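chain below, 116 aa
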Amino acid sequence: MKQLIVGCLVIVGIASVVVAQDHDSSITIVNRSEFAIHHLQMTPSDSSRWGRDMLGGDVLLPDEEVTILVACGTYDIRLVDDEGEQCVVPDIDLCDEDAEWVITTGALNRCAGFGD
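prediction:
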């Protein structure tokens, strides 16, 4: 399993699964930050258009996680807080595997304005 880890991992909280068509890989996004994530979008890294909100109107609160099933590829992920500030993580390679990404407060603080 490929792991994309920012901070330490402790699995707790509410899990949900978002399914994309023709999936063969997944990414579990674990929110270990002190911030609520109001929107989560993915796009293939070679695209300039963001996909739909993978949270579907829900909010990813601290200590919650979401699993997204995706087709093989390299993706950029955009996280948006309650004030519209965004944090973009580029070039996450997901192909025939399951990845886990733990979001920490420190990681989000590196994105200017996120959570302020």
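Strands lie at 3-5, 15-19, 25-32, 39-44, 65-70, 73-80, 86-94, 98-104. The mean pLDDT is 78.
thats it, cya
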